[in-house]
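Service request form, structural biology core

Requester: graduate student, group of Dr. S.
Request type: structure prediction, single chain
Budget code: on file
Notes: please return the result as structure tokens.

Sequence provided:
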Amino acid sequence: MNDSDYTLTSPLRDAEVTGGPVLALTVLWHPDPARVGEQYLDGSGDGVIELGRFMPMFSRPGKDRLPLGYGGISRQPLRIARTPDGGLEITPPDSRMIFELDGEEVRTVQHLNAERVADGAVLGLGRAVLLCLHWATSLPRHNPVAGLLGVGSAAIMMREQIRAAAQTNMPVLLLGETGSGKEVAARAIHAMSSRAGAPLVAVNMATLNESLAAVELFGAAKGAYTGAQTVRAGLFGEADGATLFLDEIGNTPAVVQPMLLRVLESGDYRPVGAAGDRHSSARLIAATDQDLYGGAFNHALLRRLESYVIPMTPLRERREDIGVLIQHFLAEAGAAPEEFPFALVSDCACYDWPGNVRQLAQVVRRALLSVRMGEVPLLSALTRSVATPQGSAARLAASTAQSDEGGADGVPYGAGQARAGYGGAAHSGAGQVGGGGASPAPAEAKRGRRAMPDHEEVLAAMDGNGWRILSAAQSLGISRPTMYKLLDDHPQIRRPERIAEEELRTALAACDGAVDRCAAQLRTPAEALRRYLGALGIN
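Core staff response, request fulfilled:
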């Protein structure tokens, strides 16, 4: 277990895309299900995309390039152009085609800042085709990993990191929110490693009580404690020559953390009550949704665990994958894509999924049951019916979460379930809400029922929600796109790219590297600041 004294804590670099991210369009939904997941990457150099029935040409690795083709899409192109500030300007076509942006019908020129594009903007064409407009940092390629689906850059890079980690015996630390696929990644690393023929031994560290944790992990000699009638091997003994997956590593009882450090350093451990040491060649994979750096977790142990770190990107940051995932979950349930209502797909594409891929899978299954019973499923009802385990995703909206009074995924009902209410209102008005027992959206969630927040309210919401846009929007009961517009218009809220690098470094140092506190000090959104600091190479 001493095969590395260095750490790999940064995502793998992809040299194929240089000079900044490339503007991309990914097919989220199409009347021809085979088209879902196809992409167009803008390599024209002039920063303009003309999007219509016969242009541009979409493809995926190994397939022919084809236009969208659907007859409900206007022949007159929709124009997408880069702006000098790094954002985009979208000009709808001069046609009768209904064009929707993030679930809302629009007919005028729309301006999107770079952050909104980074979050993925959803374009609806003729209420039949959905596209995600986003930045790409790697070229599309076929690099499958069992269980980890997606066509966007984040999914591609996660699979690359999993493949690279599988070729080593280094400890791996999987960092990601609840439901983001950490266990899937652990199983994939094991399956592609030289240990694939041996078992993957898994344990949830949160289930170990302090008094017996050492016995569970390291075993015990006969008579070591009351009831120990035989020798107990322990998990490290079971995983000798195999892979040991320690899920929820952040919940490891403090008493065994130094013992884990020793076995990571040397492979040696001593079972409880034993007279001598044992040795295990177990390869360790750990996972957590917690911030191990800011708490009481043993830092020496953390340094050993992070020999190879793989961040699991939350679903809200890889919106371009939602269509492919929905198709996959429908196929698992034996359903055809045609069974899933377009309006619900649009809502799903615009939602921020605090429970990540696991929550999306649960919602798709519940929605399919509703459809087959003749009901019209509404995302706001489906999301508050699905229990999402409390974790980083829920903590993301901690200031607005209401575990009993609010939605089961930690989002209060009155907050409009992030962007869930757009599709229902935009596609069919109030008549489509409900039906067959689906609960109507709350009054606060419906557009036009409240005045827009003023500058003071927006600033207070950002201050009260750790300068996180989604949480602040939920606390105000408005959509995230609306929140973006309010932030753009606010005289006191700054965009990180407009802050001098020296000021950024000074503020980050003053906050001991805590990005959230730095964001509050600088009055800039935390997510955008974190991305910008990463782009500058400031950690």
